[in-house]
Amino acid sequence: MNLLKDPWIPVRDGAAFRQIAYKELLCKEQPGLQVALPRDDLELACIEMLAALTQVIFIPEDRKELRARVKTPLGEEEYDRGVAKYMEWFDMDHPRWPFMQVAELDVDTPTPVQKLFPGLPAGNNHAFFNGTDEVNRACLSCAAIGLFNLCTHTPNLSGKHKGGLRGNAPVSTMIYGSKLRKMIWVNVLSRTSIDRILPGDRDMTPVWVDPIDPGKSIPAASIGLARGLFWAPVHARFVKTCSKARCDCCGCETDVWTNGFLLGSDLKFEIVGLWPHPYSPRQMNLQKENSKGQKKPEESIVSFRTTEPAWTQFSEFLFESARTDKKAGYAPAAVVSQFNELYSDSPVDLLVGGYRNKQAAILQRRHEMYSMPTGWNEQYRAHISEIVEIGLSAEKLLTDKVLYPVVKGNKEKGVSGVGSPVNSQASELFYHLTEPLIHRMLRESSLREYVAAKDVFIDDLTSICFDVFNRVTAPYVHKPELIGTVAIAREKLEGLLKKLKKEHTVPGGQS
To answer: Which of 55, 83, 114, 260 could cross-link with 135 by S-S, CB 3.0 to 4.6 Å?
Structure first.
C-alpha cells in the first residue's frame, strides 16, 4: 500500500463508510467527508498524519498561497507533480525503506498487532472491558495510522524503547473543520511560518530512509520538517498476510492484513534540545530541576499531568505568555497561532488530544473539542482567561479550602474528620458536572452581555459546588460526631463562594 496513490484514508460520507485515496481528498471538494474510526485517538492521529503529509509535500510558500489552497482543491496534474519524488518514502511495501519501518529485523517472534492500539491489553496484561484478542487482524490503513500514533503520541514501549520526539505523552492541538479537505490545509504551515520555528538548513530525510545513528546525541536544531513530523524512534516491520479478511479495527474488507509486527531491540540515542512541533503547545519551564533533582530543559512540550479536563490548561493551548521569575511561559502550537493570524475574523473549533501516562502505561485517553467565538485571541482573551480562572478557583475552594479540612478534622479544636478522601471525589464530580457549563461560556465569551452572563455562570458554579458538597458529605451528616464538621464546612463554602463572586463583579457593570 502506497499512501500517495492507494485508497487508505478511512472516511464517512453521510452513512457510507469507505477508504479513499489521498489524491481524491486533495483534488475533490466533498463537503460531507470526515475521518471515521472507532477510536477518537486514532481519528486525531489520522488527521495529524494527513496534515503532516500535506505539510511535507505541498508546503505553501506564503499566506496568500495557503489561503488559496484552503479555498480551492488541487488540480490532478499539480498533485501528480507534487507527489512524484515522494512515492518511495510513503510506500508500506518498499523493499529498502517501507514507510516508518525497517526492511530487515533479526527478530523471530512478532508482537501482537493489538499493541498498536494504546490502552488495549496485550500479552499477559489483565483484561477487564477489553480482551487481549480484540484486534487480531488490522488492514494496512489502520496499521499505518496505529504505527504513526505509536511513534508520535504514546509513551515508550514497555519502558525499553524511546518515546516520540515530543516526549512520552504530548498534547496535540489542531484546528477542527467540518470539511475534511479544508481542515487538513488549515493545519498546514506556510513556509513563512515554518521559517519562524525551524530556521536554517535541516535534515529533511525521514528516519526510515536515513536511520537514526545508535548511541548518538542528535541536536534538535538539525531535524527537518519531514524527519520530525514522521519521527520513528523504534525499529518495526509489519508481518503481512495476503488473503481476504475483515479488519478488526475499522471493519473494512481487505486483501492484505497484519496480525503483528517485528519489534527491534531498544534503539539508544539522545535528543539535545526541543524540536518545536507544529501541533503542540510548548512550556518555558520555571524550575531548573524536577522532583528527583534531575535537570529540566528550558522548554518542554505541554502534556496532560492530571485528570483535570483540557480547559484548565487553556492558557497553555491558546495564548503566548513570557516566562517571569515566578511564572512559567507558554507558546501555543504554531498551527493555532497561524490560524489566528490568517482567520482572526473567524470562530475557532480546537481539537485537543493526547494521553495521560505513568511511564510506559497509558492511564487515560484525552480527546476533546472546544468552540470559541471570533476574536478569541485578542478582543476576548481576557474573558476566556477569566472563565478558566473562575472555574479553577471554584474547584480549589471546594476541594482544598473546604473539604480537605473535612477529611482531616482538627484535633486541637476537637473537630472530627471523616477520614475518607471526599475532596478527591468532589474534584472529579465537579469537573464532570461543570464541563457543559464551561463549554457554553467559552462559546459565548464574546457576547456584549458578558458581565451578566458571568454572574449567571458564577451562580451556576455555586449551585454545582453545593450539589457536589452535599453528595460527598451525605454519608456523614447523620453521624453525631460529624454533624458539626459538615455544618461548619457548608457555612465556610457559602462564604468563600460569595467572596469569589464579589471579586469577579466589576462595579458599574463594565467588562
So the answer is: 114
Structure-block grid coordinates of residue 37: 474510526
Beta strands at 217-219 and 270-272: parallel, antiparallel or unpaired: parallel
Please give the DSSP secondary-structure letter assigned to residue 326.
S
Sort 326 into a burial class: Cβ within 10 Å, 0-12 / 13-18 / 19+. Answer: exposed
Contact by Cβ (8 Å): 194, 63: no
Task: Please report where in the chains the cell 497553555 appears, as a residue.
Answer: 316
**C-alpha to C-alpha distance for 56 and 328, rounded to whole angstroms:** 32
CA torsion sign, 204 to 182 to 170 to 330? Answer: positive
Q: How many CB atoms lie within 10 A of CB 108?
A: 6
Q: What are phi and psi of 309, to 5 degrees?
A: -65, 165
Report yes or no on whether pTM surpasses 0.85: yes
In the chain the first and final C-alpha atoms are separated, in Å, by 57
Neighbouring residues of 290: CB distance < 8 A, sequence distance ≥ 6: 296
Cell numbers linked to 450: 458578558
Here the cell at position 381 is 482573551
Q: Which cell goes with 22?
A: 489521498
Residue 172 β-bridge partners:
353
User: Strand, coil or helix: what is 356?
Assistant: strand
d(CA 118, CA 52): 21
pLDDT tier for residue 337 given thresholds of 50, 70 and 90: very high
The pLDDT > 70 percentage for the chain reads 92
Q: CB neighbours of 85 closer than 8 A, spacing ≥ 6?
A: none
Amino acid 357: pLDDT: 80
Query: Are 442 and 387 within 8 A, CB to CB?
Result: yes
pLDDT in tens, 254-278: 999 999 999 887 788 888 989 999 9
Rounded to 5°, angle at Cα 62 from 59 and 63: 110
Report strand pairing: 172-175 vs 282-284.
unpaired
Q: Domain spans of the chain?
A: 9-372, 382-509
Q: Residues with Cβ < 8 Å from 14, sequence gap 6 or more?
A: 32
pLDDT score at 293: 60
Task: Give the model's pLDDT for residue 93.
Answer: 93
Taking every pair of C-alpha atoms in the chain, what is the biggest distance, in angstroms? 82
Q: Which three cell numbers stand for residue 465?
A: 459546588
Nearest CA to 256 out of 235, 241, 246, 269 is that of 241
**Cα–Cα distance measured from residue 316 to residue 310, given in angstroms and rounded to the nearest whole number:** 10
How many C-beta neighbours within 10 Å does residue 99 have? 24
Q: In whole angstroms, what is the distance from residue 254 CA to residue 486 CA? A: 62
CB atoms within 10 A of CB 38: 13
The Cα angle at residue 427 between residues 389 and 485, in degrees rounded to 5: 110
The helix/strand/coil state of 108 is coil
Task: Give the lowest-confidence range in 109-113, 282-286, 320-324, 444-448.
Answer: 444-448
